[in-house]
UniProtKB/TrEMBL annotation:
Protein's name according to its UniProt entry: AI-2E family transporter
Record keywords, A-Z: Cell membrane, Membrane, Transmembrane, Transmembrane helix, Transport
Naturally occurring in which organism (per UniProt): Oerskovia douganii
Cell location: Cell membrane
Biased composition (Gly residues): 397-406
Amino acid sequence: MKHLAGLSPAAKKVAGARRNPSVVGVDESVPAWLRTSAGWSWRILLLVAAVGLIFYATAQVQIVFIAVFLALVITSVLRPVTDWYAKIMPRALATALAILSAFLVLGGLLTYVITSVAGQWDSLAGQFNSGIEKIFDFLENGPLPVTITSADIETWIENARTWIAEHGGDIASQAAASAGSVFEGFAVLALAIFCTIFFLARGKDMWTWFLNQLPSRSRETWIAAGGAGWYTFSGYARGTVIIALADGILAAIVLVILGVPLAAPLAVLVFIGAFIPLIGAPAAMVVAMVVALAANGVVNAALVGIFIALIGQFEGHILQPLVMGKQVSLHPVVVALAVTAGTFIAGILGAVVSVPLVAVAWAVFSKLRRKDPPMEEDIPTAKEIALSGRGRSSNGGASGGSGGRGSDSEATAEA
């Protein structure tokens, strides 16, 4: 009758209350573990449904999402520059000057890449042709167990031409779709720059206006969550730019020392690839190795691969902990899972945005949760847990049996 303790006499007189405890909110016929599992299950299902709804809504306005995400990245990078300019000039002028500085830096970088490609194109074409001939000769007469002759290569080229002729219409339609994608890209860039201007100039006022639309009792929670999320996101964005710039400079130095043609464009490719976690830098490394192989031979390509791998180790073990610190504290396994899931869901876009989104979500969760003290004792191994559980069950059964016999004897004596 413990479930009826504390109830009023009227509640105890409810029909069936004494025989059916579930009418007062407790159903002792269902095990506690099942009630707990059911409670967690429907909550998890609601959470999954909410996340799925967010993904669906984002997919419907993908261009807007990309533009806002890009605007937040640019804002996090240019915010320190704008604040520094704002110390000596009005905020609006500081915003315009910061954006102009970014355009000048990017424009100078692209100009340098284009001029370096144009200056080395003739020599690279000759080196590339000789390198291709060396590769064909190695495939045909080298020590590999499988030989590939010039006739085989000519057959593959002819098959490729035939396939292109048969699928010309599909290729044309894909080209038209690509032209539409280029237009969308310009639209995303324009919208991102437009949003960046307001985020830099009036970002604090916009955040204050949003908080004033919320009930006063929930503003403190939103302030804590927003501060933690922006701190993590801005740290990740600025850290990624700094690390990518360092990777590009180190790659340019290595490629110039090894005499690889097009060192500047390849360094820019490494810089861009660093924005895609785990897969961007290796892809850029493969391209640099192919150029080195075609121009300077196998040994030079192997050296390029070794040095770029060392740059990757330097980035992972020194640059990332030094630059990002505790702003982005994600385990490498979590990063790998996030990048893989993001790639399967949204391709390259998912690979780029997955890690910062997961980092922000974890930062907000860590800020809002109530964390219990850590365990002081070491966790026992699975074998120790299994053996201790078996011992308790056997001892419990024995004690339960003796207890049962003792109770029976006491009941008999009382009778």
